[in-house]
């Protein structure tokens, strides 16, 4: 029995599998976090089908693409606004630079057909026809997005670019008997790619083709173009067995809009580049079952070796976490583990789908697969922190759109530029209107002495009013400066106070976060120990039950043996008593017979003595009367004393008892 977070039956729909497994990874991708999804299992267990799907029912990969473009479709940047560099980074270009880049690409000899005019390949058109229109809930509308895809494979521990347009037969090369490529002009061996580490310690493939895509159809067409180049072969267990690990990488670049909500912010520090890797692992297989030879045998060995390295890395990570050790994890032993080293170090979320084939022939290998997959759940990796905010006001895009709509509406209503009606007087005009009006300055007569004095008087009044206004303005300016200085000092003091408070709060929060992390690690350690103790207790309880059952069975056996022993003892005692009584009677009978025989012999001897005495003492003429011979019947009627003799054992001889009995009988007769 093995435990997993979720178990799906054989009739599960692709949508249900996607909602549980892949949808959270796509949501994290849009939030700026990395993700990794494996399909793992025995060869022929359905890993590629789970990833790509079938016509009419797309798998995880087309559904991920559809969800991405359904979520960010309205917020995509124009093509070439985002530009990936050679060091796993991304730059942002202005609209003019992007336009020039598009014109330069269109001027190439082999221009690409626009996505809207391209006819879909009927071979995969039904796979991407996803009707549920799934989308992420939290999409930052003040950002612009760009999607880049790449497709690589790891074959015989070498990395190859499946989107490379090089004119070479990299899938079906011609090999000679020495397992080396034939040197002719038709075949050019594919160039393997190199893994490097960027400034953020993330691994990437140098020189890998990365295509910017603007729709689900365009992205899946790129995938299908690389899928046709992937290495597959016919084996005894699978007609189309994958001979390499394939990795489809989706990169999502996003940058915030400026304060006006119109153009992309031209700051590289504000760009976020997240990545989702969909990995279709080649199946583990046993060569004695696949009957592999030559190239197939070498491929199987490299596949099993890379999967074994993946398992070793997971086991060492688990051991380091459980026991606090610091063993070196052998990432570099395989290109597969080296490529995803940063994921296992905590730079993203990792999920694994275990595909199991119910065939009885795959039983042993399926057990190994599920045992390894269950162990991987015990490995905990640290999650990266959320990216910092850009500091701009949210809702900029919507406000800019609302402003443009309102401006266009006013233009339509007025039929011209906004504000073409009568202009309102400005503040300067109102200020000059408050001065005394100037009298007429026209001189009609040379002797006119009133016009100039009136003009001089009006100008003097205006001058006085101007001086008064200037003094008042200077006073107001001084007061305003004083007020501003007081306000600045109060603001500075408040800022210092707030900064101090914020520093204290940040220290408190940092301490609390550290304490929380420590407690979480302690809780996880204690939970694991509790789980181990529970399993140990369960094992001990099972052993206790088994021992109790064994003890009860042995006690019952001992009771049966004791009862059998008692019955046997009783039976033996009865047999001994019966045998003793039998031998006592036999001894008495033989003693009585011997006594009678001895009595007869003594009587005969007495008679002979009496006769001899009578012959000697009496004359021959006298015939003495013959005494009566005692009969055996009267002797039998006389009670005879019983001799005490030990009861003989059943196997002891009884002959020694006879002389003893005869001797005591003779003594008794003489007495």
What report would you give on this structure?
Helices cover 49% and strands 11% of the residues. The chain is elongated. The protein folds into two domains: 339 residues, Kinesin (3-Layer(aba) Sandwich), CATH 3.40.850; 145 residues. It is of the alpha+beta class. Strands 1, 6, 7, 10, 13, 14 and 15 form a seven-stranded mixed beta sheet that branches. Strands 2-3 form a two-stranded antiparallel ribbon. Strands 4-5 form a two-stranded antiparallel ribbon. The longest helix is centred in the last third of the chain and has 167 residues. The chain starts with 13 loop residues before the first helix and ends with a helix. This is Kinesin-like protein. One of its GO terms (molecular function) is ATP hydrolysis activity.
Indicate the CATH architecture of the largest domain.
3-Layer(aba) Sandwich
Mean pLDDT: 79
What is the element string, with H for helices and E for strands?
HEHEEHEEHEEEEEHEEEEHHHHEHHHHHH
Number of helices: 15
Per DSSP E runs of 2 or more residues, the count of β-strands stands at 15
In CATH, what is the class of the largest domain? Alpha Beta
CATH superfamily of the largest domain: Kinesin motor domain
Strand content is 5-15%
Q: Strand pairing plus helix content: what structural class?
A: alpha+beta
Shape: elongated
The biggest sheet, with number of strands, parallel, antiparallel or mixed sense and barrel status, is: 7 strands, mixed
Radius of gyration: 57 Å
**Helical content class:** 40-55%
In whole angstroms, the N-to-C terminal distance is 98 Å
Low-confidence stretches: 111-117, 168-175, 183-187, 417-424, 640-671
Assign the CATH topology of the largest domain: Kinesin
How many domains comprise the coordinates?
A: 2
Domain Kinesin motor: 1-379
InterPro entries: Kinesin-like_fam, Kinesin_motor_CS, Kinesin_motor_dom, Kinesin_motor_dom_sf, P-loop_NTPase
GO molecular function, one term: ATP binding
Region (Disordered): 614-671
